[in-house]
């Protein structure tokens, strides 16, 4: 299924099921929010967040290139300031693939394809989930020891797919690693890739124990 969506390029990777707060101050993105709020059906107030590959979020040095796989976001809350800025909160609904961009509006739009997740057996998902949780537990303990405080100790979703996105958003990983996780075709693929990434982080922490741990991401998650 294809559709035309407003696109918000950002210097981060958004994931399905995760909440994302944004402060909107550039005029083109104020226009984007106003256009979304003008949509009569609140459930159709959706746009795409795509990570910037090269460039910046704002100003004259704006995004010159972006990744093709992004996240379909649903605008849930918009609080307007008197000067026209917005604080918004949105939640990821699914993955999208950018097919073609459109510049007819002040902000970027794109024709996108909605991506689906292939079905997998409960047995294989359970095995992948348990293996990933074991590595994550080791990783969380190592980061907590480096920071001198308990981190990433909240509860995780029970659903394997949603859990894979929650871990991808929570663990302190470079943007390119998070993007690879978003692009993974299936849940088992994503969990396997996440294990390899976390093992790499563990090796780095053990090799350089005197360095402070990377700031832990604080992306929230929502089951809606």
Automatic annotation (TrEMBL):
PANTHER family: ATP-DEPENDENT PROTEASE LA (LON) DOMAIN PROTEIN
Annotated transmembrane regions: none
Organism per entry: Nocardioides marmoribigeumensis
Residues annotated as signal peptide: none
InterPro entries: Lon_prtase_N, Lon_prtase_N_sf, PUA-like_sf
Protein name per UniProt: Lon protease-like protein
Lon N-terminal domain sequence ranges: 2-202
One Pfam family of this chain: LON_substr_bdg
């Amino acid at each position: 299924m294809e559709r035309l969506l407003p696109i918000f390029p950002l210097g981060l990777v958004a994931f399905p099921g995760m909440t994302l707060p944004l402060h909107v101050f550039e005029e083109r993105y104020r226009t984007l929010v106003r256009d979304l709020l003008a949509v009569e059906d609140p459930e159709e107030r959706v746009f795409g967040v795509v990570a910037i590959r090269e460039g910046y979020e704002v100003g004259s040095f704006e995004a010159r290139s972006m990744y093709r796989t992004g996240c379909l976001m649903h605008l849930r809350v918009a609080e307007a300031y008197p000067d026209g800025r917005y604080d918004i909160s949105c939640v990821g609904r699914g993955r999208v693939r950018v097919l073609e961009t459109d510049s007819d509006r002040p902000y970027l739009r794109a024709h996108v394809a909605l991506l689906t997740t292939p079905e997998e057996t409960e047995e294989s998902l359970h095995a992948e989930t348990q293996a990933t949780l074991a590595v994550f537990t080791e990783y969380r303990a190592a980061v907590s020891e480096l920071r001198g405080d308990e981190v990433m100790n909240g509860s995780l979703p029970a659903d394997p797919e949603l859990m894979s996105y929650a871990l991808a958003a929570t663990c302190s990983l470079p943007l390119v690693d998070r993007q690879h996780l978003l692009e993974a075709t299936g849940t088992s693929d994503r969990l396997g890739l996440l294990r390899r990434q976390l093992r790499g982080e563990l090796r780095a922490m053990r090799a350089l124990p005197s360095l402070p741990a990377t700031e832990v991401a604080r992306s929230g998650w929502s089951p809606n």
